[in-house]
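Lecture 7 notes: from sequence to structure.
We start with the chain below.
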Amino acid sequence: MRVLVIEKNASRADAVVSLFREQNQATENITNVATNLDDGLHRVKAWKPHMVILGLDIEDAAGFESDLQIVAKMRLLAEGEYTPLLVCAHNAKREHIEKIWSFGVDAIYLGPPDALSFFVVIRALTRQKEVHDALKRAHHRIDELSAIDELTGLLNMKTFFRRGDEVLIRSRKSQIGVSMVLMNLDGFGAVNQDIGFTGANGLLQDIAGHMKRMLRQQDMLARVGADEFCVLFPDTNAEDAEKFADQLRHFVQSSVFKSQKQSVRLTACCGVASLSAEQGSQAKLPDLFHLAAEALRTAKANGVNRTETLSFSLNQVDRPKYVDS
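Predicted structure tokens for the same chain:
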């Protein structure tokens, strides 16, 4: 555990560090001392301690008030991490304690530190941080699970739209633009009836796995329907997106998907949509998705095993006009 001691009084700072060493709770490598507030704030940001111990001089009224300001500044520098803050306030009175609590500190230690009572407080704060970090990991895992399609392990539609907008914003710095491919399997309903629910699920998992292997790290893949998949390609023009769509259709067409009941072949249609860098500065992800859906509907209307591409019309962001490319 990295512990930062911020204490203007050198002897009191040495006493705190000595207590850690006596209890074998820390070494020089994980204990850091700052003798002024500016240095302390710098170390909070650069070193990212797991705990901060702040010594306050109660006898200096003006200094006491200004020193407390470090608490708010430290919370801002923590960047979402929970860092317990223990204030050592020697000879503090009730009004001082109430003032310190109002700044949101985690614990207050009164009087000169002694090994037993001091480390009761330290261990309590350590345990508090452990619980907080465990809860944070659990919430992060819940967020991950809520973002994923349970069957395929791909992003679900809600998460795809949320993260896709962020990709679109980043891609505006590129001079290439952004593209999307929307794929739907041909006649999947009949296949589902023929091979059963379990077999159909295995088929979708095979296709999802192959698509993931085809993509770059920066590409974003999601399952957006029962048998519909969507890929967002940053820094990609329509021509390269079309190549991916044709490769994907070829994989589906040439594959034999096996289930316990029988082996099946099937095909897929793809809709491709693309925004130039200029258009991407105005449009949003739903505009691009709607365009890809229009292209997919055109492909489906014209037969099976087809790719259709639509380009975004300039100056029509609010009510897009779609032009067959």
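Points to note: Residues 84 and 126 are 8 Å apart (CA to CA). The two ends are 60 Å apart (CA to CA).
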